[in-house]
Design brief:
It is built from 6 helices and no strands. By secondary structure, it is an all-alpha fold. It has a single domain, classed as Globin-like (Orthogonal Bundle). It is about 75% helix and about 0% strand.
């Protein structure tokens, strides 16, 4: 297996992740029923987000935290949800890639989940 080194790799990873996550029994409903994401609009944003993080190309514009607060108001984003998101992400990453950027993808996702969980929990307090 190879490392994540290109936009095409990022797109492969994100596509495979979303193939799994939207069908997941624990968190899939956030994507399909709560946020009702349109994959054709959502995926390019995720490609840009992860390309910015993993490849250092500043192509992402937006505030990922801001878009999750309305979801959290409808259904609380709980620690178990973030843990499941991380589990699926890590599985998908390791099934398809290996190397420095691969490990960075997992480490950064862990940090993102921790920060997001903290902010979502405080927003409900």
């Amino acid at each position: 297996m190879k490392d994540i080194t290109s936009r095409a790799d990022v797109e492969t990873l994100v596509n495979k992740f979303y193939d799994k996550v939207i069908k997941d029994d624990v968190i899939g409903f956030f994507f399909t029923d709560v946020a009702k994401i349109e994959l054709n609009k959502h995926l390019p944003k995720m490609y840009n987000f992860w390309e910015s993080i993993l490849l250092g190309n500043p192509v992402y514009e937006g505030n990922p935290m801001r878009v999750h607060f309305p979801i959290n108001e409808v259904v609380a984003l709980e620690e178990r949800h973030f843990n499941r998101w991380l589990q699926i992400w890590e599985e998908t990453v390791h099934e398809n890639f290996e190397g420095q950027n691969t490990e960075t993808a997992i480490a950064r996702a862990l940090n993102i989940a921790r920060i997001m969980h903290h902010k979502m929990m405080n927003a409900r307090s």
